[in-house]
Amino acid sequence: MATLFACLVLPPSVDAGMFRDGERVVFLGDSITDGNAYAGILADWYLTRFPERDIRFVNSGVPGDQAWLAARPDEMEDRVFSLNPTAVVVMFGMNDCRRFDFGPSPSDAQIAARAKNLATFREATRRIATNILDRCGPVPLYLLSPHPWDDNSALPQGKTGAEARHPDFYGKGAAMGAYADAVREVAEQIPGATFVDVYSAVSDYYRARRKEDPVAAFAPDRTHPGRDTHLRMAVEILHAQNADGVVSDIALQGTNVLKSVRSAVSEAKALPGGGVAFTVLERSLPWVFDEATAATATNDPVVAALDREMLAFYGLPDGNWTLWIDGAPVRTAGAAEWESGVNLAFEPATPQHRQAQVLLRARETFWKEKKEKEAGHTRVRRELGHYMDAKGLDKDSREDRIKAAGEAHIDPAYETWLRRIWRYVAENWDDIEAHRAATIAKWPALREKATPRPHRYELKPSLGSVRQPGQRALLNGLSAEASAD
Fold it and tell me: Which of 14, 29, 290, 327 is the most buried (most CB within 10 A)?
C-alpha cells in the first residue's frame, strides 16, 4: 500500500478550538473507539452544526488494542500518518490496565504487573503523542483519558449483591483513575496536546444518576459503555473545544425581528385574527440522536446547552400560542414561555429535526460500510502476510490468502469480528486505497443532506385560549397591520 510521508497540515495551530474547514480527524483507539459511538456522535454534531465545512472523520480503532501496540511505527504509519490527519483524537487505557492482575487478594506478581503496565501505558501514550506532533506538525491533538471500569456491586447483570461484583477483577475500577492521571500528566508535558477528562466526566455523571437509580450501569460487560456514556464522551471533546451551542437564536416582537443569530428571517407579516408569519433559513440543523441516546440527550441540560435552537416572541397576549412550520403544528406554549424562549432542537415535529434524522441514518449506514471494509485492514494484512510467509504460502494467490485466513490462530475473544475482517482482507488484498478514495467521495453527499432548507413559520393563537384584542395589543403594531391586510 502506498504510504504518504507527511500529514496534510493546515495553517499552524495547536489550539483546542473547533475543527475547521478542510480538517481530517483521525480517531485512534481500541474497541471503545472502534464501535464508532462517541466518534459518530461527534461527527453528527459537526455535520449538523457546520454543513458548509468540509470536515471528514476517520476511525482507526482496533478491538483489543493497547497503547504500546498502537505506538509501533508500522501501526502509526498505517492507522494515522497514511490518512493525512489534520487533527487526531487518541483514547487508550481500558486494555492496558489488564483485568486479570486484579482481585481481592493480589499476589506480589500481580502488584508488580500493575505497576509495570501503568508505566508502559504512560510511556506509550507519550510516544504516540510526540510522534504525531513530530510527523504532522502543530495539529490539534486530543488525549482522552479512559472512562471508568464499573465494579459497582449493585450493577444489574442477572446477578445481585456480591455475585455481581466480579471479585477476580476487584480493584480495576479504582486503577482506571491512575490511567486517567497518566494521560493528564503526558498531556501537560507535551505542548500542543489537549487533555480530555473522560474519566471524571463519566464518573460524575454516574455518581449523580445513582442517587436516583443505585443500579445505573455502564454496560453489561462493564468495559464497553452504552450510548449515553459515549454521548458524555463526545460532549467532553466539545467542551475542550469551547464549542458554541447555538444552532440558531431568533426573537421577534410583532413583525420586527429583534434577533437572528445563525439564521436569516424574512417576509414577516401579520396574520388576520392575530399571529405572525415569517420565513426562516437557518445555517445549522439541530443535533439529533438515535433512539438509544435520544431519551438521555433530551433530559440532559449539559447536552441541551450544546443544542440550542431558540425561538422567542415578545409582547404576546396571555394564553397559549401554537407554532406551525410548513403548515404543520410543532409546539404549543403560553405567552410567558414563548417570551422566555423555546428550544426547538428537541421537537421531533420540526422539519429541521426530521431532516437531521435522515442525515443521522445516512451517516450511520455510510460509517458501518466504511468500518466493515477499513477496520483493521492494514494490521490484518500485515499479520496475515507474516503467517503466510511462515507457512510458505503465496501472498499473490487469492486461494492461498483465503486458506491462511481460515486456519490462522485468532484470539477467541474477537473470533467473529476478526474472521470476517481477515476473510475480507484475503479477498480484497489491494483495494484499501481505492476504498478510502471512494469513502472520501461520499462526504460531500452527507454534507448536502445536512444543508438547511428555508421553512415558513406561523405563530397563531391556540383555539379559545388567547384573550382577544381590546385587553392588550397583540404585538407591537400587529393588529393595525392585520387590519390593513
Answer: 29
CA nearest to 140, candidates 92, 188, 86: 86
Q: Which three cell numbers stand for residue 61?
A: 480503532
Give the C-alpha separation, 272 to 275, whole Å: 7
CB 182 within 8 Å of CB 118? yes
Q: Measured between alpha carbons, how far is 411 from 180 in angstroms, rounded to an integer?
A: 27
| β-strands 263-270, 276-282 pairing | antiparallel
Bridge partners of 253, per DSSP, are 256, 314
Question: What's the predicted TM-score (pTM) here?
Answer: 0.85
Compute the C-alpha angle 150/61/403, nearest 5°.
115
Nearest CA to 126 out of 64, 209, 190 is that of 190
Q: E-assigned strands of 33-129?
A: 56-61, 87-91
Q: State the number of CA atoms in the 13 A half-sphere of 367 facing the CB.
A: 23
Are 301 and 238 in contact, with CB atoms under 8 Å apart? no
- Set of cell numbers at residue 318: 396571555
- Report the 10 Å Cβ neighbour count for 102: 24
Tell me, what amino acid is at 395? Answer: K
DSSP state of 90: E
The position carrying cell 501501526 is 75
Strands 455-461 and 320-325: what pairing?
antiparallel
End-to-end CA distance of the chain: 70
Taking a C-beta distance cutoff of 8 angstroms, is the pair 193, 131 a contact? Answer: no
* Model confidence pLDDT, tens digit, residues 32-70: 998 889 999 999 999 999 999 999 998 888 878 899 999
Domains of the chain: 24-243 (3.40.50.1110), 244-485 (no CATH)
pLDDT in tens, 132-173: 999 999 999 999 999 988 765 444 444 444 444 455 577 888
